[in-house]
Amino acid sequence: MQHSRHTPELTPSLEELEDQERRLVFQRFTHEDAWALGSLLVELARERRLPVAIDIHRAGQQLFHAALPGSAPEQDAWIVRKRRVVERYRAASYLVGARFRAKGTTFEEASRLDPDEYAAHGGSFPITVEGVGVIGAVTVSGLPQLEDHRLAVEGLEKFLGRSTG
After folding, report:
1. Along the 165 residues of the chain, how does pLDDT read in single tens digits?
2. Rounded to two decimals, what is the model's pTM?
3. Which residue in 24, 39, 101, 129 is a FRET match for 155, CA 20 to 30 A apart?
4. What angle is formed at CA 71 by the lines to CA 66 and CA 77, rounded to 5 degrees?
């Protein structure tokens, strides 16, 4: 029997998540790109009245940060923990968590990393430059983890669609 639910409501497969990472690659990523991508994400979040914080890091430097109404200081701590997962695993924080779940365990149980320092919860997505690799991360925090992930992906898709279209 087929589900009447649409794909956006379903948990994405590992293949879908890995495909997002293959598709969402930059030719280059400048300070101006960070500002434009961050501003685009803020615009999307404001339109929907989402209580999120948005952060963009490149090579260890914070290039963009915004905290929208309703967000809380704890979201900044989540941003740091999720970004550390991207930096360590070179993959989206949601994908890293999903890979552990697919093996029948959890990131917290099996990674042997301090949960106060690392969180494989959705919302941090690698900034990958073609021919270079992962150079940073864009992170959204404040919503359930899959929604954080989806907002980051939507922003990247729109931004990369603008710059290549």
Report:
1. 333 333 445 889 999 999 999 999 999 999 999 999 999 999 999 999 999 999 999 999 999 999 999 999 999 999 999 999 999 999 999 999 999 999 999 999 999 999 999 999 999 999 999 999 999 999 999 999 999 999 999 999 999 997 544
2. 0.92
3. 101
4. 80
